[in-house]
Structures are given as C-alpha cells and as structure tokens.
Amino acid sequence: MEEFDVEKDTTDKYTLRGRVFSQIREGILSGKYKSGDELKESTIGQELGVSRTPVREALRQLELEGLVKIIPNKGAYVNGLSSKDLKDIYSIRSYLEGLCARWACANITEEQIEDLEEIIYLSDFHAQKMHHEQLLELDNKFHDVLYEASNSKMLKHLLKDFHHYVQRVRKTTLSAMERAIESNQEHKAILEALKEKNCDKAEELAHQHLLNTMANIEKQGLENLIQE
Which of 41, 103, 111, 149 would staple 52 via disulfide (CB 3.0–4.6 Å)? Predict the structure, then answer.
C-alpha cells in the first residue's frame, strides 16, 4: 500500500481517517484481507505510515458498514461480503439504476449522449479484440456518465459506492466475453431509450440490466467468485 504524506494529512484528521478508511476497505474488497483475518491497528498503521488512532477510527467506521467485526478485548476481524450481501447489493442496485436512468432521461445532455455512444463503440471494438481490462474500464465509464446525467449527487454517491463494492466480482464476470458482449448490447438499448426520451423504457431496461448481471453471477457461482 502507498504511504501517506503524514505531515500534510494530519492537518485534518478527518481527511486522514477517510484515506485510511478507503485503503482498508479497498484491501477488504480486493481480497487482500480475507474473511476472518485480524486487522491489527499497529500493523496497518505501519503499512500506511500513520498512527494507530486514524486506523482505529477507520475500523469503527468499517464496522458500521458491516465489513469489519470488532470484538472487545480481542480485536477487529474482516467480515467481507457474503453471497447474500452480493445478492442484496445487486437487487438494491437494480432499482437504483432504474431510477438513475429515469432521471437521466429527463436531464441528459447531448454531450453525455455522445459520450455514451463513444463508450459503446469502443466496447464493441475491444470485445472483438478480447481486451478484458478495457471492457471493464468502459463499463465503469458508461455507468459513471449515467450517474452524472441523473443530476442527483445523492443518487450518484449511493450508486458509486455500490459499484465499488462489487468491483472485484464485476471484473471476473466481464472477463467472460459472452457476458461482456451481452452487457454492451443492453447498454445500447438503454441509450436508445434515453435518446427517444422514453423514460419508462429506460428505467425498465436499466433495472433488467442489473438483474441479468446478477443471473450471470449466480450462474458462475456466488461463493466461488467471493472467495477468489
């Protein structure tokens, strides 16, 4: 993990705690810290070049998110994401992404439509070349543009958090070229509905897009994907 500039960051302990929190959470979601691993304040502090205090505060925040369990007089342990957590995230996301598409339908700009068209075009190109990393990056960009187009900072914040939580699983599922191609076709359909200003259709297609993704994840095996 990258060391922080402590002198700079300690000018605002909340900023420092936020960065420590993000680093530990990323370690959990990326699989660096496995379910059941003990998160030792001193060890993590040394890794990040910070004192134990911001680490302790970050662990408490992670406990509120359900990613860490703190046992009094014992320590902090990784909870990670269970298969039920993953199902819950995609179920919730399916409705929020639908709402996002509906709001984007009313607020999307011509520039954002052009951005989505370019993303879809590039996704087709990279799918033919079997460039998995580029496809994942473009998939992220498609959703980011939609989040911006919703014109709601609250909805954008929620969706980006959920998106981040399943990043590792998404990377695995989109490496299956068949699903990557299907996903891009679904993106095309959502874009067409947006261009037609058919908000009902855009919402339904975005909702179904996430349900299709969840069905593909279940097909590949939830437990295996989480434990990889």
Answer: 41
